[in-house]
Structure to design on (347 residues):
């Protein structure tokens, strides 16, 4: 497959994946902004399109004209060099463009990008391909945001709607152990031909003491034990600012957890269900993660320790393409759950 064909195929695949994620939602679902840190689904769909229009079409499409002049401001997130941005906390006020108009915008820009890629001069192909690759990874970031944001949107609705009615597969129970790692002057940072973000560079040397890392993530069952042992009522486990957050916000459990006479439940993209004791715990803050580590007689790893350990991970990943759409451990392995499923806090 030629370079042009490979880039085009990947581009169309990722653009189509976003459309698939939007498909279960009603137009009403896509406009809600449940808190300032949440962006409406419709905004994600338009912003990722704005990225390709602004950074690929504008400099490389002959006779470029914007799809809609106002979209340059409405769907700019924080790119100060491009110009003015619409207020982030007010994105939920944008009832227009409609969802259908947003989909038409996506379709038009997708076609135009594909045409530019197919027809550009060979001398422009490396620059265009590089920009499209950045845009692809940017859109994949927003696919994750789209799902986490719609989870919050649905969680504040008393009906607690389901995004997905697919079966919820249970995690594989894994007995935690500790893996030992040698220290020394070690190389960290991106090194290889594949894509990376700029904050992964440059490759550099760091001194790391010998350390151990758990073989898998903390589970919901372990977190329930932390709660039962008074984890949210013991200030000695918490950083000062963390304890202030506990008392000021009334934290008693992770976000989306609730208890009743039958035990703990959690709300996710499949609706509300009893917690899966073997599944990785999610939706906890850095303060909560640090308190749990202290309760466990451990600590959070450094970024360098996490990266060094990641080279030994051999368990399957749980990315959005798996369609599990929940934090889960699909299989056992060294450092199970290290990639996908949940974000992981470092010190």
């Amino acid at each position: 497959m030629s370079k042009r064909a490979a880039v085009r195929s990947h581009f169309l695949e990722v653009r189509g994946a976003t459309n698939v994620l939007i498909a279960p939602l009603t137009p009403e679902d896509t406009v809600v902004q449940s808190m300032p840190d949440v962006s409406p689904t419709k905004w994600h769909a338009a912003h990722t399109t704005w990225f390709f229009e602004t950074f690929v079409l504008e400099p490389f499409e002959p006779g470029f004209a914007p799809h809609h002049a106002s979209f340059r401001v409405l769907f700019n997130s924080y790119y100060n060099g491009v110009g003015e941005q619409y207020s982030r906390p007010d994105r939920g006020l944008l009832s227009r463009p409609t969802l259908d108009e947003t989909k038409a915008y996506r379709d038009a820009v997708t076609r135009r990008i594909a045409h530019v890629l197919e027809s550009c001069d060979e001398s422009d192909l490396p620059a265009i391909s590089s920009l499209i690759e950045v845009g692809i990874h940017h859109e994949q970031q927003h696919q994750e945001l789209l799902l986490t944001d719609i989870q919050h949107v649905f969680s504040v609705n008393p009906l607690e709607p389901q995004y997905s009615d697919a079966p919820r597969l249970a995690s594989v129970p894994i007995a935690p152990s500790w893996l030992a790692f040698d220290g020394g002057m070690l190389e960290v940072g991106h090194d290889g031909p594949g894509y990376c973000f700029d904050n992964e560079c440059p490759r550099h040397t760091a001194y790391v003491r010998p350390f151990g890392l758990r073989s898998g993530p903390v589970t919901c069952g372990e977190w329930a034990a932390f709660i039962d042992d008074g984890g949210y009522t013991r200030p000695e486990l918490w950083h000062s600012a963390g304890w202030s957050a506990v008392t000021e916000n009334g934290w008693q459990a992770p976000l989306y957890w609730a208890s009743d006479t039958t035990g703990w439940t959690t709300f996710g993209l499949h609706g509300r269900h009893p917690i899966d004791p073997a599944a990785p715990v999610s939706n906890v803050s850095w303060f909560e993660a640090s308190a749990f580590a202290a309760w466990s007689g451990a600590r959070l790893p450094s970024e360098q320790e996490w990266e060094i350990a990641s080279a030994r991970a051999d368990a399957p990943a749980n990315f959005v393409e798996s369609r599990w759409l929940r934090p889960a451990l699909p299989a056992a392995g060294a450092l199970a759950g290290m990639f996908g499923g949940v974000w992981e806090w470092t010190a």
Q: What stands out?
A: The CA atoms of residues 53 and 59 lie 9 Å apart. The mean pLDDT is 96. The longest strand covers residues 263-268.
